[in-house]
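Supplementary notes (optional reading)

For those who missed the lab, this is the record we used. Protein: Leucine-rich repeat-containing N-terminal plant-type domain-containing protein. Length: 492 residues.
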Amino acid sequence: MDLLLLYLLLFLSFCIFLTQAHSAAVWNNVSDQQSLLGLKAQITFDPNNFLSGWSPNTSFCEWRGVICFPHVERVRALNMSATGSEGAISPLTGNLSSLQSLDVSNNALGGPIPPQLGRLSNAEELLLYGNHLEGDIPASLSGCRRLVTFAASYNRLQGSVPAELALLTHLERLVLGGNFLEGTIPSSLGNLTSLIELTLEMNNLTGSILVEVGMFTRLQTVYLHTNQLSGIIPSSIGNLSAMTDLELSTNNLTGPIPVEVGMLTKLQTLYLYTNQLSGTIPSSIGNLSAMTDLDLSINNLRGSIPVEIRMLIQLKRLFLHINQMSGSIPVDVDNNLLSGSIPYGIKNFQLLGRFVLRKNRLKGNILDEIGQMKSLGSLDVSWNQLSGGIPDSLGELQQLRRLVLHHNRFSGAILVGLSRCPNLELVDFSHNELEGNIPGEFLTSLKNIQFYLNFSWNFFQGPLPKEISTIVSAQAIDISGNQLGEEIPGVL
């Protein structure tokens, strides 16, 4: 009898448990439905009728953009990205307690980020970027302890970066660029050792770059450009061995480029332009064998360009202009005080797209080997003291669009080899000592000229070739200051 009574009590307890579990499930289902309907109520304009099927008469798991767990009627993800929606994010969204992913990016949502989103303790990603959200970033978001990605870039957010975000120890991507954030970068963010991407660009941030940045050993992308950051680039940046993209341009950074930058052997993009950096370019930069884009322009850099820069054979874009560097030149810079000649070995830069040496003090010839730089789209050596002939090898540059040689001492004739460059859009040979006839074959090849063709102030002779009439797209053609015949071709 006692045993039977025990079994009966166990059975009743189990029934009560099932009833409570069922009641909780029903309540959670109702809560999710109410939260979604609350979100819909805050949308004031739905141009694509994305929410038209959100009705309490159907299961919310069947609503467009709603993803539920298999076999469980709870919302796992909500995707309303790029629906054209206007309105606001409902505070009731914070009641979706099982939600793992919220994506309302690329809409026209305004108002604040609801502090109630901090209740989403299971959320792994909050994608709020590309809206018109305003106000502060709620410190309560630190309650999303499983958060991996928080992206709220390109909104109208104000205030500071909350120090409480440092509690999100699983965070891998913190993307807050393109807002109106102020204040300093909290040192507590050094706790986010799982970070892979840190983008705070185009804000009004002040203060210095965190020394703690060296703790982000998994970091691959850092965009801090276009702020008001000051101070030095910390040497601890050399610890970021996984870094591929580092953009610190358009700030007020001072001091030297740390030699430890050479330890970032996976770095592909390094943008430090428009700062107040001083000192010399460290020779360790030659270790960055994966580098494709290097821009150190508009600083106060001095000294010579290290010869090790020739080791960057993957380089596509290199900008060092508007500095105070001097000495000989191993590769492409403009508007400095560089002297000497264009060096041999320049052909190693097979991926270089722009080669700009204007406004220096270079002498000597244009090397034949430049014709081996097959990716070259722009060659500008204007405002130097270069001499000799224009090499026929330039005709091998099939991608060349801009050829700018003005204000030098080039002499001799224009070789017809240049007619093999089919994509030229701008040609400027002015203010040199070129002579002879202007080849008609060369003019015929310039059918893609879109900007201008300038032969002025040379010693060209003979009649103006009738082939000049084939250049119909040029904005201007200048042949003044030569010894050409007075007769203008009748086809013009």
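If you only remember one thing from this example: The helical segments are 2-41, 440-444.
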